[in-house]
Amino acid sequence: MTIQRTALGWLWLVAVVLVLDLFTKYQATSLLPYGVAHPQLPVFDLTLLHNTGAAFSFLAKAGGWQRWFFAAIAVGVSIVLLVWMARTPRHQRWLGAGLALLLGGALGNLYDRIVQGYVIDFISLHYKGYYFPAFNLADTAITIGAAMLIIDMIWFSDTKNNSN
Questions:
Q1: CA gap 26, 93 in Å, rounded
Q2: Which helix (H) or strand (E) holds 40?
Q3: How far apart are CA 18 and CA 21, in angstroms?
């Protein structure tokens, strides 16, 4: 199978996600002082934070070993996603795009984890004193990609059992 006939044709989206993620993290690091909220909207701030853990700062205070643990997981997941993309026919657009978003986000956060030792977060959403954990564009791509995989699984799957 060639790239044009598989979901590997979506690698351009992986590159776009990766470039946008790294660029916005660079901008946030260059322009925002650490930990200081810069309100943009009543429910949205730009706040530079460093996450040494995983989602929701899981294992953030584990002593440093988690950097390489999470990096190894990201490498493994990225390999699985690439193989999955290579085995996915191009016509399965939702699945291909979802996998590309997941891979782009995983690579963006992997880069941070390896180079910086932490993931750079800067988007802060809140409402009436309730704060959602800070995140970045890679996290957004991962979330959208996962939602697309779920939607594909429920509505667009070629392997659905048609019992009628």
A1: 31
A2: strand 38-41
A3: 5
Summarize pLDDT for 107-130 with one digit per residue, the tens. 999 999 889 988 999 999 999 989
Q: Would you say the pTM of this structure is higher than 0.90? A: no
Structure tokens at 114: 């390896």
Would you give the DSSP letter of residue 157? -
- Amino acid identity, residue 138? A
Could you tell me the mean pLDDT of each successive run of 10 residues in the chain, 164 residues long? 78 97 98 96 95 61 63 91 94 95 96 91 94 94 96 77 39
Half-sphere exposure of 51 (CA within 13 A, CB side): 22
Q: Which residues are catalytic?
A: 121, 139
Rounded Cα distance between 68 and 65, Å, is 6
86 vs 1: CA distance, rounded Å: 8
First-last CA distance in the chain = 33
- Find the helix or strand (DSSP H, E) in which 106 lies: helix 93-115
